[in-house]
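Supplementary Data S3. Sequence and structure tokens for construct A.
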Amino acid sequence: MERALVRALCNTGVQVVVLDQPSTLRQYPPPEGVLAIAMDGSDATSVRDAFAAIRAQWSSIDGFCNLIGFMKSWVRIATAPARRGSSL
């Protein structure tokens, strides 16, 4: 779903930024022209740095879509495997 949304937005000319785990960005790189920022959502400094990088690129954000996964048990985000369609 996430990659389909990114492609659809890119196809309409929207400038897109993707924030995700480094392992996920390596395994599923976004399309050319998309700003990809590696971020650990469980780490406040990582989140601040990611939004600072967005701010450096654009003066404002016109839209925000938060697509996250849910896990059956606690797994540190930074070490979670980048598997699509599987359950942790």
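Construct B, processed identically:
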Amino acid sequence: MQNEHSFNEMDESIFLNKNINGGTFLKIILEESYTVIFANIKAYVYPIKYSSIENYDEFVKSECQLVILCTDVFYYEIYAKNIFMIEVLNNNAKENNFYDVEYITDENDGRTSFSVI
């Protein structure tokens, strides 16, 4: 998991390292309730070969499996390579009454950069 900057209400980083494994990430985010204002999160499968991912084309060519971008608390964009994961995320969003859920495709993706910070 790759993370940019994440702070608690005391302006302290909630992640000790920029790169953490999925289990540690889950433990940290479940410890307390957080409000995500902006986030750039990228997930890789072990063994990890990190690469700079600035756009969709670089994501497709990389070993990164999941990108989560959060803007202004409420707007999330999730990019995933695994179709099953996409379907699980979509079903979860519907079950939890998220609105304006839509698939991002090559035809409707207007994002030029994989960063919101």
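The chain has a mean pLDDT of 79. Residues 97 and 108 are 23 Å apart (CA to CA).
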